[in-house]
């Protein structure tokens, strides 16, 4: 009884307590949280776990099967929702949990899948390690949620990116396939399956879309992704300890940032930032990518055979394709490297590996042609272009000069690759008849890391979206680091190894802290660049010194053991350097929950009363009705013409004739340069003139022209923009007023 309590019951209770507390403090009602948790258990975890075990042909631990079963449950529900919403019965997605539970309960041959395999149970130290990780993640999550408000008045300052995602989720709730909801006749070239997941959950639970998208789904993705990451590491390293170390690195380590005051949000590979700042779609895609990699590792190693793993892989990667397609080419590059190395070693192409590559290639082609309509999404081939404008992000002004450009490149590349030096241990650690670095899983991850950096070097995007490729591959390098560190302790057990690795890690930590102190003083442009280069060289020398000391302290061991410990010490040193980035994040917490309404009103993305007006329209219109508005910019009187106006489509969950037009394929194509894609004029001036004439010069004729062309049922006037309210009142007497918003009902015009 006590053993069971300590093994899993108490960790589960503590983990749930952390989740309930952080969501409560983040503005989510307790009833909403309990509804969401109950839904995850009944509609996703239980049926997903059963199907996962059946497709794998065996049961594993409850933690493993529950985590990946939960992910699989979401993938199945997304596929089912696409069909059910298309035929007009979205609530029919409940057929998945109901039928699955009924079949697995009634068919005798399937009942064994209800029970986990006791021999594969996670040890107590693993369950408690996961619990501690969940607690730290919840603490961090709760500190950052004020950046992303869910209620007024702070919600009036919601970011354009999140309003864009909310508008897509609203359209996915009412239409499949969704389209760009804030401007007519513009197809949606985007990976929108994460929004489908939110829409499906909304139909099942009745929860507000904004609460799901800005609070519940991000925390779900964060916690599920980190647990799955640890389980993937456990499979790759073939030791449960590798999973625990990987979880610790994922929570506590990040990109190396040597310079004081550096802000590396854009280029950072810290998993915390990847899952949160990277956007909800990135966090959701990360979860699906980890599950896909878990299956791929089994296939390329030859551990999973038969048709069922392929069904599992096809379902997961197809969902990943629509959720965050940036993962596909990165994983595909890793698979291609596995095939190349396999061909060189075996003198023949490994069939299963090639098949995985072909599957990923076909899905990537489908995504580009069908989901994205062949559009470039604003990505352009511009080798090295970003390094010329990213100097400020690492504290080095790199606008001009070869010296400053070299400093930027050196700092960025060292920050990306420094934590991966621990993977060198795998080159000398044996697994069977070959070094661990030649294991297909190690080759796969190595290829992903290299490819993710290569894409960033070659491509550019106005919103730095090419860094989603970096975020899709570089964090998986922690898997190799964890594997290497555990391999070193396994090959050279004892207190000596702990002392060597701990000392090396402390050396790296101390070096970065010292570098931060030395970089506080302002210098000239050239002086700043030279200082950055000197600090990078110092960090490289310190890494080598840590490795040398590791070799010296391992005297008396055989040559291979000394080499392994030398490489592990170098890796531990860079991990120590990387831990400073997490210290940076911790120092930012908690972010102030100050009243945003104290900011200048001209900076508000939403008008006062806009949310209430939008929700009234949502309740009193059909999903096929359209709205028209006089507001088209991100903020009123914006001289730059920032066309990221999405709030009405986001909260009304209805399509708008012309609200904004940024973040579309046409805007990206029309822009003379990537940096101007947000501010291009609307490419259909006749339609914009017709729309605005209804508000500026209202008449029966202009209204008839608009309503005759589109099913507009309400006009939404944002009084921060110009409109002839008196003329509209004389023409449309039925209206309502909410703060700075007035809405007019459009009756059929004869």
Condensed summary:
The protein has a domain at 606-745. The protein is 60% helix and 4% strand.
Explain this structure:
- By secondary structure, this protein is mainly α.
- It has helices at residues 2-25, 30-56, 62-86, 95-106, 124-144, 160-174, 193-205, 209-237, 240-252, 271-275, 280-300, 308-323, 327-346, 351-371, 402-417, 440-458, 467-473, 477-491, 495-518, 525-553, 559-587, 610-619, 647-652, 665-670, 685-696, 700-709, 725-731; strands at 380-381, 430-431, 434-435, 459-460, 626-629, 655-656, 712-718, 735-738, 741-745.
- The chain has a domain at 606-745.
- Helices cover 60% and strands 4% of the residues.
- The strands form 3 sheets. It has a 5-stranded mixed β-sheet, with helices on both faces.
- It is globular and about 95 Å long.
- The mean pLDDT is 86.
Structural class: mainly alpha
Q: Mind summarizing the main beta sheet?
A: 5 strands, mixed
Helix content: 55-70%
Morphology call = globular
Annotation, overall tally of beta strands: 9
Primary descriptors:
mainly alpha; single chain; 750 residues; five-stranded mixed beta sheet
Topology:
Layout: H1 2-25, H2 30-56, H3 62-86, H4 95-106, H5 124-144, H6 160-174, H7 193-205, H8 209-237, H9 240-252, H10 271-275, H11 280-300, H12 308-323, H13 327-346, H14 351-371, E1 380-381, H15 402-417, E2 430-431, E3 434-435, H16 440-458, E4 459-460, H17 467-473, H18 477-491, H19 495-518, H20 525-553, H21 559-587, H22 610-619, E5 626-629, H23 647-652, E6 655-656, H24 665-670, H25 685-696, H26 700-709, E7 712-718, H27 725-731, E8 735-738, E9 741-745
Parallel strand pairs: 5-6, 5-7
Antiparallel strand pairs: 1-4, 2-3, 7-9, 8-9
Helix pairs in contact: 1-5, 2-3, 2-4, 2-12, 3-7, 3-8, 3-12, 5-8, 5-9, 6-7, 6-8, 7-8, 8-9, 8-11, 8-18, 9-18, 11-12, 12-14, 13-14, 13-16, 15-20, 16-17, 18-21, 19-20, 19-21, 20-21, 25-26
């Amino acid at each position: 009884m006590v053993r069971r309590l300590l093994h899993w019951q108490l960790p589960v209770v503590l983990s749930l307590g952390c989740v309930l507390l952080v969501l409560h403090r983040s503005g989510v009602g307790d009833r909403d949280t309990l509804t969401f948790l109950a839904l995850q258990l009944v509609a996703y975890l239980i049926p997903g776990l059963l199907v996962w075990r059946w497709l794998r042909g065996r049961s594993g631990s409850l933690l493993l099967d529950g985590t990946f079963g939960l992910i699989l449950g979401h993938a199945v529900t997304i596929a089912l929702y696409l069909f059910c919403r298309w035929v007009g019965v979205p609530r029919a997605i409940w057929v998945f949990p109901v039928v699955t539970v009924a079949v697995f309960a009634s068919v005798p041959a399937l009942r064994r899948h209800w029970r986990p395999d006791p021999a594969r149970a996670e040890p107590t130290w693993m369950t408690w390690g996961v619990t501690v990780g969940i607690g730290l993640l919840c603490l961090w999550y709760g500190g950052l949620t004020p950046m992303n408000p869910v209620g007024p008045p702070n919600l009036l300052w919601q970011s354009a990116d999140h309003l864009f995602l909310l508008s897509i989720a609203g359209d996915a709730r009412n239409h499949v396939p969704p389209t760009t909801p804030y401007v007519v006749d513009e197809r949606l070239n985007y990976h929108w399956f994460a929004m489908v997941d939110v829409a499906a959950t909304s139909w099942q639970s009745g929860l507000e879309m904004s609460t799901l998208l800005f609070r519940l789904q991000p925390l779900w993705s964060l916690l599920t992704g980190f647990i799955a990451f640890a389980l993937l590491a456990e499979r790759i390293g073939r030791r449960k300890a590798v999973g625990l170390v990987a979880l610790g690195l994922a929570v506590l380590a990040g990109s190396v940032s040597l310079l004081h005051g550096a802000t590396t949000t854009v280029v950072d590979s810290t998993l915390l930032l990847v899952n949160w700042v990277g956007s909800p779609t990135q966090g959701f895609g990360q979860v699906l990518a980890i599950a896909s990699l878990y299956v791929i590792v089994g296939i390329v190693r030859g551990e999973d055979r038969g048709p069922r793993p392929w069904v599992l892989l096809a379902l997961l990667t197809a969902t990943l394709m629509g959720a965050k397609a940036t993962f596909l080419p990165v994983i595909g590059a890793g698979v291609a490297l596995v095939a190349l190395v396999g061909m060189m070693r075996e003198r023949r192409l490994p069939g299963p590996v090639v098949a995985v590559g072909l599957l990923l290639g076909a899905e990537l082609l489908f995504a580009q042609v069908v989901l994205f309509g062949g559009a470039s999404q604003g990505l352009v081939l511009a080798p090295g272009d970003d390094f010329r404008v990213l100097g400020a992000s690492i504290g080095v002004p790199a606008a001009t000069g070869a010296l400053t450009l070299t400093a930027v490149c050196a700092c960025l590349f060292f920050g990306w690759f420094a934590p991966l030096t621990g993977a060198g241990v795998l080159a000398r650690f044996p697994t069977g008849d070959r070094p661990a670095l030649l294991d297909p899983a190690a080759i796969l991850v190595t290829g992903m890391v290299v490819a993710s950096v290569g894409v960033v070097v070659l491509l550019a995007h106005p919103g730095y979206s090419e860094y989603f490729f970096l975020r899709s591959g570089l964090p998986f390098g922690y898997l190799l680091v964890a594997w290497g560190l555990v391999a070193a302790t396994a090959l050279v057990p004892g207190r000596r190894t702990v002392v060597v690795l701990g000392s090396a890690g402390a050396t790296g930590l101390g070096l970065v802290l010292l570098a931060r102190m030395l970089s506080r003083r302002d210098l000239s442009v050239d002086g700043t660049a030279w200082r950055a280069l000197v600090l990078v060289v110092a960090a490289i020398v310190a890494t080598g010194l840590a490795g040398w000391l590791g070799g010296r302290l391992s005297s008396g061991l055989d040559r291979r053991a000394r080499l392994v410990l030398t490489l592990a010490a170098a890796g531990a040193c860079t991990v120590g350097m990387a831990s400073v980035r997490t210290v940076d994040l911790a120092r930012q917490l908690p972010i102030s929950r100050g009243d945003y309404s104290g900011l200048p009103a001209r900076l508000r993305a939403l008008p006062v009363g806009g949310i209430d007006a939008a929700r009234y329209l949502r309740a009193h219109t059909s999903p096929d009705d359209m709205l028209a508005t006089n507001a088209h910019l991100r903020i009123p009187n914006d001289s730059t013409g920032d066309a990221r106006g999405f709030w009405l489509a986001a909260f009304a969950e209805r399509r708008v004739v012309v609200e904004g037009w940024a973040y579309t394929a046409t805007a990206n194509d029309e822009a003379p340069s990537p940096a101007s894609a947000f501010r291009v004029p609307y490419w259909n001036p006749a339609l914009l003139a017709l729309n605005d004439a209804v508000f500026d010069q209202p008449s029966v004729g202009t209204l008839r022209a608009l309503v005759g062309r589109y099913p507009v049922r309400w006009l939404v006037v944002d009084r921060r923009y110009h409109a002839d309210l008196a003329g509209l009142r004389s023409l449309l007497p039925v209206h309502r007023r909410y703060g700075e918003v007035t809405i007019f009902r459009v009756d059929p015009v004869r």
